[in-house]
């Protein structure tokens, strides 16, 4: 793979990589949504999966002319370079996301939260609010009783 840009049509590289990126994104979100979704979202996932497959099929046909549906739009060498760089960029992003998730899951924050005993704090706040409401109700009842006694 020649990394020099002397003989490379930048727009052809960009457009082919853009279409491959869209196809791979549709394919991956379709797989994820159709597997983990339920009901309507699962149907949407299958639709995204189908659109991703169609997009990648068309772009591969545009590059290599294997099916013959679309005329050859991209040079096969440029498309291969775009495909390799696109897949490697997506792989790097996925590996980075998994590394971040791994670190976040290994950080021991659950024990720290258990030490705080947040349930008691929530109950105290609720109890204080209930006491304030009771006092306000009692004050309004006392005012009404006093006004009735005056009459």
Q: Would you give an account of this structure?
A:
The protein has 151 residues and is an all-alpha fold. The chain has two domains: 10-107; 112-150. It contains five helices and no strands. The chain starts with 9 loop residues before the first helix and ends with a helix. The model has no long low-confidence stretch (mean pLDDT 76).
Summary of the model, kept short:
With 151 residues, this protein is mainly alpha-helical. The chain folds into 2 domains: 10-107; 112-150.
Element layout with pairings:
Blueprint (H helix, E strand, L loop, with lengths): L9 H27 L3 H25 L11 H31 L3 H7 L1 H33 L1
Largest sheet: none
Question: What value does the average pLDDT take?
Answer: 76
Q: What is the 3D form?
A: elongated
What is the tally of beta strands? 0
**Secondary-structure element pattern, one letter each:** HHHHH
| Strand content range | under 5%
SS-derived structural category: mainly alpha
Q: Count of helices?
A: 5
Termini, distance in Å? 99 Å
Instruction: Report Rg.
Output: 31 Å
Name the helicity range.
over 70%
Low-confidence stretches: none
Q: How many separate structural domains? A: 2
């Amino acid at each position: 793979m020649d990394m020099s840009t002397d003989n490379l049509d930048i727009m052809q590289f960009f457009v082919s990589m853009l279409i491959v990126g869209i196809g791979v994104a549709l394919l991956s979100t379709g797989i994820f949504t159709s597997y983990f979704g339920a009901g309507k979202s699962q149907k949407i996932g299958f639709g995204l999966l189908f659109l991703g497959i169609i997009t990648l099929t068309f772009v591969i046909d545009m590059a290599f002319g294997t099916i013959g549906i679309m005329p050859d739009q991209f040079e096969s060498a440029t498309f291969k370079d775009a495909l390799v760089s696109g897949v490697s960029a997506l792989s790097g992003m996925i590996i980075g996301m998994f590394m971040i998730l791994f670190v976040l899951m290994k950080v021991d924050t659950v024990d720290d939260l258990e030490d705080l005993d947040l349930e008691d704090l929530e109950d105290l706040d609720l109890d204080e609010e209930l006491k304030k409401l009771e006092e306000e109700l009692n004050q309004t009842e006392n005012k009404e009783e006093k006004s009735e006694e005056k009459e």
